[in-house]
Amino acid sequence: MSNNSIANGRKVKANSSFSLFYLLILTLLFSCSLGGNLDDWRSLKDENDDLVVTATPTVAASVVSKDTLVQKSVVFTLTSTHTGIWRVYNAETGGIALTTVEATFAVPYLTLTASGSDLAVGTYFVSVEQARLAESSRLAFTVVTQEQITIYESFNTSGSYTYSLPSEVTFPATIEIYVLGGGGGGQGGSYTYHFLASATYGTGGAGGGGAAAYMKFDVSSSVSLSTTIGKGGTGGNGHSPSSGAGNGFAGETGGSTTVTWGSNTLTVIGGQGGGVENRNLRSGGNGGGISTRPSVITDSASFWDTAPGCNGENGVANETGINGFGRSQGGRAGALNIGSWGSFGGAAGGYNYNVTAARNYATTSTGIGAGGPGGFSGDVRGFSGGNGLVIICITYYKSP
């Protein structure tokens, strides 16, 4: 019995050694099938084990304003560095990544870019997934629209002025300038003496309207603007000789309005005075002609425009009685409709009405940059044209 036990025991021991040998062989074969790569062994984790999570990005400022109202992308500055796959969501958790907004990273800047022309304002949640790690938590990035601010300054009194941008203006900023030349003055009235007949009277020609111009340009720093406002032309004297014909004196041509910044100058000319072309024919003054675009202004309909002033009406020939006191209306100022201000210029010239044989009359007011009406009879001078005008519009953006 003892010999059998020994035999059996040896047999069991021999079988155990044989099993261990085969287990070693199988282990080596399995190792070879994995290429002997230690990393592959380490990757054989239990399915219930958690992957290490990618670190959440950190940002210097999580709220950024657009530079313009319509903007395709916005840039944030990160204070951490990551490589991997970036995703953008519209919620802090859950949902699927957006396809309309893309996140890209180039140290240290994270850029959110819309697939369309404009990145909508709002909050975007961004994650990153590095190789062999799980996706990070999402960090909120908020895009806001800057507040658009437009301020205005105007000058209408004849003279010279200097204007500097207010200190609160941020850059870049857009400057728009609207300009009118001065209106021409009206010609004086006329009186003609007749020895054996009734005297005859006449109305002088009206002044022409000043021209209009508009320009727009961007600036990256403060600028100083110098402007001279064209004075409305003074009306000419009437003429009442003791004998013979007495045509009124011509009105004065309106002054040009200028705007200068740096080495650039825009000049907008005034309307011609009534009677300047032909005093004897009481011709109405021509409107100011169109302006020349400064070379630094973009030659585009949204950056530049100009319009001439309108001609003043001719005067009325000598007639007897109150019919000789006919109206001659001043020419309208040049008119534009463009930019932030919109409708600009186009004011009507003045004219006389309710004139009686006793030379009682009323005169409508002459608008800015418009021509003055002609005088009537030999003792009424022409009326002055309207002064020129400059309106400066400055648009800039301020973060909320």
What is this structure, in a nutshell?
This protein has 400 residues and is mainly β. Helix content is 10%, strand content 31%.
Describe what you observe in this structure.
A hairpin with a 2-residue loop joins strand 15 and strand 16. The protein has helices spanning 2-33, 38-43, and strands at residues 63-65, 73-77, 85-89, 101-106, 109-114, 122-129, 139-144, 147-155, 159-164, 173-180, 190-192, 200-203, 212-219, 224-229, 257-261, 264-268, 304-307, 316-319, 335-338, 342-345, 352-353, 362-363, 389-398. Helix content is 10%, strand content 31%. It is rod-shaped, with a radius of gyration of 43 Å. Residues 1-16 and 34-48 have low confidence and may be disordered. It folds into two domains: 63-144, Immunoglobulin-like (Sandwich); 146-400, no CATH class. The termini are far apart. It is mainly beta. The protein is built from two helices and 23 strands. The strands form seven sheets. A five-stranded antiparallel sheet has the order 8-23-10-13-17, with no helix packed on it.
